[in-house]
Amino acid sequence: MSDGSIDLKDAARAAAWSLPLEEINPAQPALFQDNIFWPYFERLRAEDPVHFTAQSAFGPYWSITRYGDIMAVDTNHQCSPPTPSTAASASRANPTRAAVSRATATRR
Prior knowledge:
This protein has helices at 5-18, 29-33, 38-47, 67-75, 84-88, 95-104; strands spanning 50-53, 61-64. With 108 residues, the chain is mainly α.
């Protein structure tokens, strides 16, 4: 017999691991309301620890998902957030991604 919450968590895990990375938006309120955000962050930490979300209700943003990377970015003031022009054209070669990679290289 299933209590529903297990089904919801299983469905969240399946959804998180089946979406293309570029479609993952970890800031969806429903993920937090239903406490099913964990599989999304698990996947991002494993596959894309410096993740760019181009489309969201809050505008484009970066998710830094590993503790060491967060600390490196937060203590490296030369690594700044993207400007609207760089956010609009974010890619794997984005200057912000490169700056974060340099800042976190010693922590990997």
